[in-house]
Write a structure and sequence with these properties.
Two copies of one chain form a homodimer. By secondary structure, the first copy, chain A, is mainly beta. Chain A has one helix and nine strands; from the N terminus they run βββββββββα. In chain A, strands 2-3-8-7-4-9 form a six-stranded antiparallel barrel. Chain A has a two-stranded antiparallel ribbon with strand order 5-6. In chain A, strand 5 and strand 6 form a beta hairpin. Chain A starts with a strand and ends in a 17-residue tail after the last helix. Chains A and B meet through strand 1, strand 4, strand 6, strand 7 and strand 9 of A and strand 1, strand 4, strand 6, strand 7 and strand 9 of B. Strand 1 of chain A pairs antiparallel with strand 1 of chain B, so a sheet runs across the interface.
Chain lengths: 148, 148
């Protein structure tokens, strides 16, 4: 069984190289631009009503994967699925960003953490009732918060 | 440009038909089971440290899409990307669920909202710092909360 995904747009960001890219959007105030291809633009109607959106995208510069990785925020090995490491069997990334404005098929976003030119696969509205959870345990990431 | 995705496992749930399936996990206390295929099981190491995980999966029973849809929670048309409607250009679903336990390559989960047999594409740890946002505006979904 396989599923073929094709980009619906492209994410523009200030980050040209992996080394510059923030680890997660909460660590980034960077502004970016989501360009949705014109043939999909009608699907953006009403999206400006949401303060935050979820971007799904392809980690297009990542290939291959290993099942145990040393993530950016730690120096020990962890199971890949206990990390957000980009090299994954299905290299799909997700980021919650703030939607600042829409002009036609262009979304102005804040808190972007992806490489410039990242292929966009989907956009979903961020809805607290669906997506906000009180995580009581954050595994190996505990204590590796914003202060570090 | 295209990306070929192949399942890394399968999500088992009590829901055999679309009509039975809760609209979102926050509306569901249903228990389910994520079966990660043995060849990917090593990637689960340390995942039990997280109280919540993000499942990415294929809406395998959805085909085609239209750019303006009438979502389950409303009777007006909205742009597809302002909804969580399953028929999308790239039919990827995401759900935040509670991770109750792990036995080897099997994850016991709570709050599942997908069809039994849904192909799993990825698992990521849910990390409040990355994923939790205070959404100030929820567009057309505002006021369509748990009470309705």
């Amino acid at each position: 069984m396989e599923f073929v995904m094709r980009p619906i747009g492209i994410i523009h960001s200030p980050f040209q190289e992996k080394e510059q890219t923030p680890i997660q959007p909460s660590r980034s105030q960077a502004q970016g631009r989501v360009e949705v291809y014109p043939e999909f633009a009608a699907g953006l109607e009403d999206i400006e009503g949401f303060s935050h959106i979820i971007l799904l995208y392809a980690f297009h510069q990542s290939s291959g994967f290993t099942l145990r990785v040393k993530p950016f925020l730690d120096d020990r090995l962890h199971g890949l699925f206990a990390t957000r490491y980009p090299k994954r069997p299905n290299p799909i990334g997700i980021s919650v960003v703030r939607l600042a404005a829409r002009q036609g098929n262009i979304l102005q976003i804040e808190g972007v953490d992806v490489l410039d030119g990242t292929p966009l696969l989907d956009i979903k509205p961020y809805v607290s009732e669906f997506d906000l959870r009180t995580a009581t345990r954050s595994g190996w990431l505990e204590g590796r918060g914003e202060s570090q």
